[in-house]
TrEMBL record, chain A:
Subunit and partners: Homodimer.
Protein name: UPF0210 protein INF28_03000
HAMAP family: UPF0210 (MF_01221)
PANTHER family, per the entry: UPF0210 PROTEIN MJ1665, UPF0210 PROTEIN SPR0218
Pfam family, one: DUF711
Domain of life: Bacteria
Similarity field: Belongs to the UPF0210 family.
Organism, as annotated: Ructibacterium gallinarum
Length: 454, 89
């Protein structure tokens, strides 16, 4: 007989059937370095040909693996080399053709998002960076599947405050251009400190310069499974709590490892990493906030939330790291507000504020994610929110990110609906005192002392 | 290639007969079979060899799913590696 007993089989099936265990994404990273060309039309042609050739069977393979193992694989996606690098080679100041060709390639291969309309400007701008960043609002609002990100800070370089200032303007402009669609364009744009090169999750995925020609990265999920496991140990001490999360994370990650290996084999592409992130969805029972509440907090956002999230994030990593030969990406717990039923409820009832979310980002894997703020929030305030978040990442030597939606025409008390996995977000209040003069300074915030480790 | 067939639901006559007939018709060999009650739900687990199956795993899964609907139970078939990888180091 199979060396697995009936209870274990039943446990696996229960996780999939009742607790929303799934593989969140198989993301194929494709290098476009060999597609650079001084003629932008030639570059676009090469990009389209390479992506459609490499990712031709990505969606089909994902579906086959899903059917063989009986585990849902929600998204099949593509990440590419930051386009600003490729754009630097072309004799043009207009980057939009790159966005359109990425969108077309994504549509042809059947993936729902393609990430990498990106630039890394933590220390300064090259010509390609300038052109790409300027085009981001229109690129996001005139394409369907293209995701964009900009790295504006690293622990090694400090914070590029010129870029931070521009990001506030870019986000406002994107919100304005997609005003008739709930400022949806902003949901496809992330600002990073210490971005990682192998993140499979959107909207921040791009294929780093240090990566190979093509690679398969897999993101697992399963907040519902962790929540259910915690329901069985009510009232027990933190040692038991951490141990239970670790064991659960191990099991979840093993799924990711299996799927990553199978996808890598079937597609003939090297396996990169498994990302251990607990990524929530708006579905009931698939929430990170509810895990925190299961630990004993009346509402996510109340005092104790940061400690609870710290424990969760750490235990997820410890459990997952042994389950996979290569762990990477962001690996931890995500706290996107609009994509998490518990976060939405906590924000709506006033338990969860932006300031508490900022504190939570010190101990979780990413940052301020899918947060809707009033449409009349000044660009400088958005830049200041970004600056705070970048400082947390730079000083703590971790990735932090901001994905914020100043929803055009909306005010506190309203809510915006993005639909699908992106969910719906209540408009959260921001501080009304100005940060204008601070943001107007420009220049760079120097790298912290602990960056000097050499 | 081995797979695990699981049947979950309310016990009644004909579940094993129906499932094993469908498997036999498709030249799937049953290697082992156990049944138990897990959390008040009748659970039958079959280890099957699908090496010589007339149908691909995905097509077999569809047939079993349809049979499950007729019998008012849930029937799944999954490659055994999902259980091995999750529960064994």
């Amino acid at each position: 007989m199979i060396n697995i007993n009936t209870n274990e089989i039943a446990e696996t099936i229960k996780m999939i059937r009742d607790e929303h265990l799934d593989i969140r994404t198989i993301t194929m990273g494709i290098s476009l370095l060999d597609c650079a060309d001084s003629d932008i039309d030639a570059a676009c042609r090469k990009i389209y040909d390479k992506i459609t050739r490499y990712a031709k069977n990505l969606v089909k393979t994902g579906e086959e693996i899903s059917s063989r193992y009986g585990i849902p694989i929600i998204n099949k996606r593509i990440s590419v080399t930051p386009i600003a690098v490729i754009a630097s080679a072309s004799k043009t100041d207009d980057c939009l053709p790159f966005a359109r060709i990425l969108d077309k390639a994504a549509s042809e291969t059947g993936v729902n998002f393609i990430g990498g309309y990106s630039a890394l400007v933590h220390k300064g701008y090259s010509r390609g960076d300038e052109n790409l960043i300027r085009s981001i609002p229109e690129a996001l609002c005139s394409t369907e599947r293209v995701c964009s990100s900009v790295g504006v800070a690293t622990t090694k370089a400090g914070i590029n405050m010129d870029a931070v200032r521009q990001m506030g303007e870019i986000i406002k402009e994107t919100a304005r251009l997609s005003a008739d669609n709930n400022s949806m364009g902003c949901a496809k744009f992330v600002v990073f400190a210490n971005p990682v090169e192998d993140n499979p999750f959107m909207a921040g995925a791009f294929h780093g310069i240090g990566e190979g020609d093509c690679v398969i990265n897999v993101g697992v999920s399963g907040p519902g499974v962790v929540k259910s496991a915690l329901e069985r140990i009510q009232g027990q001490d933190f040692g038991v709590l951490a141990e239970t999360i670790k064991k659960t994370a191990f099991k979840i990650t093993r799924m990711g490892q299996l799927v990553a290996q199978e996808a890598s084999k079937a597609l003939g592409v090297p396996f990169g990493i498994v990302d251990l992130s607990l990524a929530p969805t708006p579905e009931v029972g698939d929430s990170v906030a509810y895990i925190l509440e299961e630990m004993g907090l009346e509402k996510c956002g109340t005092h104790g939330t940061t400690a609870a999230l710290a424990l969760l994030n750490d235990a997820v990593k410890k459990g997952g790291v042994m389950a996979s030969s290569y762990v990477g990406g962001l690996s931890g717990a995500f706290i996107p507000v609009s994509e998490d039923a518990g976060m939405i409820a906590a924000a709506e009832c006033g338990a969860l504020h932006l300031d508490k979310l900022e504190a939570m980002t010190c101990v979780c894997s990413v940052g301020l994610d899918m947060i809707a703020v009033p449409g009349d929030t000044p660009a400088s305030t958005i830049s200041a929110i970004i600056a705070d978040e970048m400082a947390i990442g730079v000083i703590n030597q971790k990735t932090t990110a901001v994905r914020i939606i100043p929803a055009a025409g909306k005010k506190v008390g309203d809510s915006v609906e993005f639909g699908g996995l992106l969910g719906a977000a209540p408009i959260m209040p921001v501080h009304s005192y100005s940060s204008e003069a601070f943001i107007a300074r420009g220049g760079r915030i120097p790298a912290p002392i602990h960056s000097l480790r050499n | 290639m081995r797979a695990v067939v699981t049947v979950m639901g309310i016990d009644k006559p004909g579940i094993i007969a129906g499932t094993s007939t469908l498997l036999a018709d498709n030249n799937v060999n049953i290697l082992d079979i156990t049944q138990t009650i897990v959390q008040n739900i009748f659970t039958m687990v079959m280890l099957v060899d699908i090496e010589n199956s007339k149908l691909e795993l995905s097509a077999l899964a569809e047939e079993l799913n349809a049979l499950g609907k007729r019998l008012a139970v849930e029937i799944r078939i999954q490659h055994e590696d999902i259980f091995n990888s999750m529960h064994r180091i």
